[in-house]
Amino acid sequence: MQQIIQHFTDDDLYKFTMCCAVIDNFPRTRVRYQFIDRNHSVYPAGFAEELTRQIKLLENVVITPEEVEFMRRHCSYIPAWFLRYLQGFRYNSEWVKVSQDSEGHLSIEFEGAWSDTILLEVKVLAIVSELYYLMTGEAESADYDDYYSRSALKAEKMIQAGCNFSDMGTRRRLSFRAQEVAVRAMKQQSDAMNGPGRFIGTSNVYLAMKYNVTPIGTMAHEFVCAIAGMFGPQMANHMAMEAWSKTYRGALGTFLYDTYGWEIFSLNFSEDYANMFKGLRVDSGDNFEQLDLICEKYRSLNIDPRTKQVIFSNGLNVDEAIEIQRYAADKCIPSFGIGTHFTNDFPGIKPRNIVIKLIAAKITESWPFYCDTCKFSEDRGKYTGKKEVVDRFKAAINLESED
Questions:
Q1: What is the radius of gyration, based on Cα positions, of the chain?
Q2: In 10 A of CB 191, how many CB atoms?
Q3: Is 317 within 8 Å of 143 (Cβ atoms)?
Q4: Is 299 exposed, middle or buried (0-12, 13-18, 19+ CB in 10 A)?
Q5: What is the pTM of this model?
Q6: Is 370 exposed, middle or buried (0-12, 13-18, 19+ CB in 10 A)?
């Protein structure tokens, strides 16, 4: 089987931007990650062995001068020292443990320096997703000509509705080819139309380079989760915003706020940060209710929410995004990041419901123990982490525990 990940920047931008902030603020932190298949899927026999081989092949994937130059030109907020760091970066398969039980369920764990292991998540998820369809034979049914046409139609509908949108589908794509076809179709459709909406770009840095679009992304929940594990959830959002502003000094100013829910974030979201960050990202809960809370918070700080960007990325499809656009257009500056619906929407194929989450951290390698962490969301009953850790974190921020 051919190597699935062949380009260093076949990855989401937020992994690189977070890696830079981690080195800048938490250079000695070590972490653990865990793979979660929310559907408890049974994987084909031999899957763990082939996945292990594909991860070993990552050791030969290095950033090219062309990729460095693209990031230098299009990601000016990334400091030069970090691009030099990436030129010397090498993956090490020893950071990863893969196994498969007798029933076929898959286990994946990462452990190591946060600055190293942070660059594994998206690549490994993309490998797991694509490998599953290859080994089950489902990939053979994919009609990429039809996929181009349907992707262009999705873009046309969103552009006509005034939506500004981007692709964020690397992690759960059917294949690299599927994401490439979607990005190409949407770029060409956007170029051919005259608004009012537009295709902004893609989170995948390699495809952004190949199709000359903007690489999109800032941060993920893991940045707040690790800080909460080390220092507690009460001020984790505040500390994350402080660290982010230290590294990027006002650039990349879209904050993902829902790691521990709106209430604790709102207490941490003071006027200085509300002015500094250009907007927020909605990734869980009811999109309309969340937007209303955001607008109310901005107004309480004497900030006009119509001057602030709100990115909606909560598992959306085209019709849902258009509905939100109609509601949000006169309340904020809305935009949309859509993942699986863009890169794994094939008839008869069910997308993988898989994630890799940071579950523990320690401030420095000299500590003899890790501190567990977890993630909530605005979706009631949905969390990631041990129940006792979730309950402890909820008690710390005065939220009720769920049975």
A1: 20
A2: 11
A3: no
A4: exposed
A5: 0.97
A6: middle
Amino acid at site 330: D
Q: Are residues 230 and 199 in contact, defined by beta-carbon separation less than 8 angstroms?
A: no
Beta partners for residue 32, in sequence order: 111, 360
Q: Which residues, at least 6 apart from 385, have a Cβ–Cβ distance to it below 8 Å?
A: 357, 359, 372, 373, 374, 375
**How is the chain split among helix, strand and coil, in percent rounded to 5?**
50, 15, 35
User: 134-139 contacts: CB < 8 A, separation 24 or more?
Assistant: 134/1, 135/43, 135/44, 135/46, 135/47, 135/50, 136/44, 138/348, 138/349, 139/174, 139/175
For 364-377, the pLDDT digits (tens) are 999 999 999 999 99
Length of the chain equals 403
b/e per residue, 240-250, with b = 16+ CB within 10 A? bbebbbebbee
Nearest to 161 by CA among 319, 358, 381: 319
Cβ–Cβ contacts within 10 Å for residue 232, how many? 15
110 pairs with which residues across the strands? 33, 96
**Cα–Cα distance list, 379 to 76, 232, 293, 386 (Å):** 35, 21, 15, 17
* Mean pLDDT per 10-residue interval, the chain, length 403 residues: 97 98 98 97 98 98 98 98 98 98 98 98 98 98 98 98 98 98 98 95 98 97 98 98 97 97 97 97 98 98 98 98 98 98 98 97 97 94 92 93 60
> Distance (Å, rounded) from C-alpha 393 to C-alpha 401?
9
Each residue's pLDDT tens digit, 163-208: 999 999 999 999 999 999 999 999 999 999 988 999 999 999 999 9
What whole-number distance in Å separates Cα of residue 344 and Cα of residue 341? Answer: 6
Helix (H) or strand (E) holding 239: helix 236-248
**Looking at this protein, which amino acid is placed at residue 98?**
V
The rounded distance, in Å, linking the Cα atoms of 344 and 170 is: 10
SS3 letters across 265-333: HHHHCCHHHHHHCCEEEECCCCHHHHHHHHHHHHHHCCCCHHHCEEEECCCCCHHHHHHHHHHHCCCCE
